[in-house]
Design a protein that fits this description.
Organism: Kluyveromyces dobzhanskii CBS 2104
CATH topology of the largest domain: Rossmann fold
GO molecular function, one term: GTP binding
Protein name: Translation initiation factor IF-2, mitochondrial
Number of helices: 13
Strand order of the largest sheet: 3-4-2-5-6-7
Strand content: 25-35%
Family: Belongs to the TRAFAC class translation factor GTPase superfamily. Classic translation factor GTPase family. IF-2 subfamily.
Radius of gyration: 35 Å
Keywords: GTP-binding, Initiation factor, Mitochondrion, Nucleotide-binding, Protein biosynthesis, Transit peptide
């Protein structure tokens, strides 16, 4: 068997080698066994069997789904604020949007419906922006006329290209440049930067519209609206609204609300979602108890391109998961169980591969160690290293999108010496179980956007560190600082004073004789308990390192002596090996700042 495995390409095959399910199927094929293959079925597509095929007869026009993307603080939320005539900018911590917000509004001029996704601009929410780009029809790329293209702008351009969505560029904050000539020059500079980044604008014969706007004053906002509507008309967006069609959608956000329980914001993609429907998302099942629109009002139905908050989930679904309707609870449970089994198999497969790699590496190490055991001490040191120190964290966030973004932002922080390790992450206020886990693992609990965390959690009896944050980059900075504090300290010696030992005196104390070094302070200041080292000869060999035990001037014991004065010095540990002509260096051990 092992010989055959090696012929098939399993170079590390041995009695200690674990076979994954996929490999077992390949081997069974090689041995001509008949079996039911599960090839192509995974946890990500297991629910596809529930979907209904597209029926062109049921296709009807639907509102466009528009994503606002761009760099932080370039005015994305202000644009949406103007369009829906509500103020959400002031509610955002630090002026940064930190969740995917979805809402449907009527365009002021054309009176047509548009669904907007407001994706966060902060760099930490890369994953959420990717998700926003992949479920949208039109991307409005926001670029400030003052700042031009910035790091998140480049990321948004990349995601827009990868998603294949249509693009409109909105050059914002033109009200900041009142001089029309200067404004035109700044706009041209931004447009040239966009062209340099392979955005095919209409001015060079491309199909990407550019609109110059000010959401603050409303200047040209009607042009932006008309650009979205005209582009959506050209795209001829349609979806099945028939109530018999299996409903599909996407979880944009999920959270646990007091007195309500698990809720999820779902963007409907296909079919009509109704109260009482059975839905599956990830490992979560929901019987829709209530649906709320962006105004908080209850609705009985939700059609394609509409975003609604759904109440009734048995467990909290993950942001970004697909939502599919099931005909009955028994079917829903059957498919969820099937998916859970597949997830378990996939995790086991990853674990098996990791174990095989570790065993193969250990085998090589043992072989190398056997060959060089007697001669190579450095190699032995490498073998005994335990790797970087883990600094443990438990993440608690307000919604699953934030939780996901935080974990992705901090789980890779660290270096060869220390690394961040996420023990667990979940939505909601820290629980007793979280505190127990933190105590066992020595973790710090990071709370994000949770409002007022109960005092008994913050000032817990086990003195577990519970930190609260509202802005994610502050959280990342704190984690980085914690990791830095866990780096092994490095100290350097800073010379404080130089002392010459000129003569050795003997004094009788009771029945014992002690030697005292008669010294002169050449420079600096010498204090009792100072760190010192004694240098001897032209090569300045160090013959002692320790502390000063006492300083005497005459018969009096003093605390310190300044430059130019003479004194008698004794050292700790009863050291008396000094000689006339030795040099005594007083120094401080200074901790050197370290960075990741």
């Amino acid at each position: 068997m092992i010989q055959d495995l090696k012929k098939l390409g399993f170079t590390h095959a041995s009695s200690n080698y674990i076979l994954t399910k996929e490999y077992i199927e390949l081997i069974l094929q090689e041995y001509n066994y008949d079996f039911e293959s599960t090839e192509g079925i995974s946890s990500s597509n297991v629910y596809d069997e529930l979907k209904s095929p597209m029926n062109p007869r049921f296709l009807e026009p639907r509102p466009p789904i528009v994503t606002i993307m761009g760099h932080v603080d370039h005015g994305k939320t202000t644009i949406l604020d103007y369009l829906r005539k509500s103020s959400i900018v002031s509610q955002e911590h630090g002026g940064i949007t930190q969740h995917i917000g979805a809402f449907q509004c009527v365009a002021p001029i054309s009176k047509k419906l548009i669904t907007f996704l407001d994706t966060p601009g902060h760099a930490a929410f890369l994953k959420m922006r990717e998700r926003g780009a992949n479920i949208t029809d039109i991307i409005v790329l926001v670029v400030s006329v003052e700042d031009s293209i910035m790091p998140q702008t480049l990321e948004a351009i990349k995601h827009a290209k990868n998603s294949g969505n249509e693009l409109i560029v909105a050059i914002t904050k033109i009200d900041r440049i009142p001089n029309l000539k200067s404004r035109a020059q700044s706009i041209e500079k931004v447009e040239n930067s966009l062209i340099a980044n392979e955005i095919e604008l209409e001015k060079i014969g491309g199909d990407v519209q550019v609109v110059h706007i000010s959401a603050k004053t409303g200047e040209n906002m009607d042009q932006l609206e008309e650009s979205i509507i005209s582009l959506s008309d050209i795209m001829d967006l349609k979806a099945e609204k028939n109530e018999k069609t299996v409903c599909e959608g996407w979880v944009l956000e999920s959270e646990v609300k007091k007195a309500v329980g698990n809720v999820a914001t779902v963007l409907v993609k296909k079919g009509t979602m109704k109260k009482g429907d059975l839905l599956i998302s990830g490992n979560s099942i929901c019987k829709v108890r209530a649906m709320l629109n962006e105004l908080g009002s209850q609705v009985s139905k939700a059609s394609p391109s509409q975003a609604v908050e759904i109440v009734g989930w048995k467990s909290l679904p993950n942001a970004g998961d697909e939502v599919i309707q099931a005909k009955s609870e028994s079917i829903a449970k059957k498919y969820v169980a099937k998916r859970q089994h597949l997830v378990q198999e996939e995790n086991e497969s990853i674990t098996v591969e990791k174990m095989n790699d570790e065993r193969a590496a250990q085998s090589e190490v043992n072989s190398l160690n056997k060959e060089e055991e007697e001669s190579d001490e450095d190699h032995e040191q490498i073998l005994t290293e335990t790797g970087p120190k883990d600094v443990n964290f438990i993440v608690k966030a307000d919604v699953s999108g934030s939780e996901e973004a935080i974990v992705q932002s901090i789980e890779h922080l660290g270096n060869d010496e220390v690394k961040s390790k996420i023990i667990s992450s979940s939505v909601g206020i820290p629980t007793e179980n979280d505190l127990k886990m933190a105590k066992i693992t020595g973790s710090t609990i990071l709370c994000f956007n949770l409002g007022n965390v109960p005092n008994e959690i913050i000032n817990n009896k086990d003195k577990i560190a519970v930190k609260q944050f509202n802005v994610i980059y502050k959280l990342i900075e704190d984690v980085t600082e914690t990791l830095t504090d866990n780096l092994k300290p490095i100290f350097e010696e800073k010379q404080v004073a130089t002392v010459e030992i000129r003569e050795i005196f003997e004094f009788k104390i009771k029945r014992n004789f002690i030697k005292i070094a008669g010294c002169k302070i050449v420079n600096g200041k010498v204090n009792r308990n100072s760190l010192v080292k004694i240098l001897r000869g032209p090569e300045e060999e160090v013959i002692y390192k320790g502390k000063i035990s006492s300083i005497k001037q005459g018969k009096e014991t003093v605390q310190d002596v300044n430059k130019g004065n003479e004194c008698g010095i004794t050292l700790e540990n009863d050291f008396e090996g000094y000689k006339a002509g030795d040099k005594l260096i007083v120094y401080e051990s200074v901790k050197i700042p370290r960075f990741l």
